[in-house]
Design a protein that fits this description.
single chain; 70 residues; mainly alpha; 5 helices; 2 strands
């Protein structure tokens, strides 16, 4: 299942900046390398399961995350 907000990458970039989370920290939490996080930050959509892991780390709801991409 894919999570579609207006722009998931934009939401991720904004949320990471708000919570002061680095690519390396996020990568460790979701089980990928920092380069993959960099790619995720440029994507317009991403897997729903991945978004759930991200919002857990960033301590926000899916709705809050979605709003950041608009």
């Amino acid at each position: 299942m894919t999570f579609h907000s207006s722009d998931s990458g934009k939401a991720l970039r904004t949320a990471m900046a708000m919570r002061q989370v680095t690519n390396v920290e996020l990568a460790k939490h979701i089980g990928v390398n920092a380069e993959q996080v960099s790619r995720l930050r440029r994507q317009s959509d991403m897997k729903f399961s991945r978004v759930q892991m991200i919002v857990d780390l960033l301590d926000m709801s899916l709705e809050e995350f979605d709003q950041l991409g608009r």
